[in-house]
Write a structure and sequence with these properties.
alpha/beta; 6-stranded mixed β-sheet; 5-stranded antiparallel β-sheet; 11 strands
Length: 217
């Protein structure tokens, strides 16, 4: 897999960020104070917000380049996202939450893929449970399975452990590490927790308000 190259200006009302870094396979941590633009950067990579200039590329695929009016649809980027809160569909089972993200197959085949992913993240027994009954850690495991279900080449993790207790947080760190290594994906992790950085970072991109300032291996 090729690198993810980010070199963009992203703006929302009252704030903007200049982000420039290269992320390869493994886990790149985006580190810096709240409000410095880390989550805004992830939104630009995911395609939910358009940069005003620059480009985002993954290998030979251009996700966004305003100068050429390029803005690849989010669903065509093969980017998976896990948020601080799992954002699952409460009226659907864990199995069907994951199956919704499987690409280019019918429902029956999608459920087979979803079941395999739920097994891999350790919650196969909860496949048909009431989603609203899941614990925080269980919900994040389902969200992680869903993020990977679309054959993600880029995995975006926006404070995914912050609402978990210490035991669940440690278990999720180990799971994320093993899945990223196993699948060879490019993962970007936004976190304020030094233990997350120590446990997971292959490289760190530092932010100050409105800009990236440093990248270290």
């Amino acid at each position: 897999m090729s690198n993810l190259i980010v070199d963009v200006r992203v703006e929302v009302p009252g704030f903007g960020v200049d982000a420039a870094f290269v992320a390869g396979r493994g886990i790149t941590v985006l580190s810096g104070p709240s409000g410095s633009g880390k989550s805004l950067t992830l939104a630009a990579i995911a395609g939910t917000i358009r940069p005003v200039r620059g480009h985002i590329r993954c290998g030979d695929v251009t996700f966004a380049e305003p100068a050429r009016s390029v803005h690849l649809r989010s669903q065509d980027r093969r980017v998976g996202m896990v948020y601080q809160h799992a954002a699952l569909f409460e009226h659907k089972s864990p199995l069907d939450n994951v199956a919704l993200a499987v690409r280019n197959v019918g429902l029956a085949a999608a459920r087979v893929v979803a079941a395999e992913l739920l097994e891999r993240v350790g919650v196969a027994a909860l496949a048909t449970a009431k989603t609203r009954s899941l614990s925080g850690g269980e919900r994040q495991r389902v969200a992680l399975a869903r993020a990977l279900a679309g054959e993600a080449r880029v995995l975006l993790l926006d404070e995914p452990f912050s609402s978990l207790d210490a035991a669940a947080r440690q278990a999720m760190r180990q799971l994320v590490r093993s899945l990223v290594d196993e699948r060879g994906v490019i993962a970007l992790l936004v976190t304020h927790d030094a233990q997350d950085v120590d446990a997971l970072a292959d490289r760190v991109v530092g932010y100050e308000p409105g800009q990236t300032v440093a990248a270290t291996e």
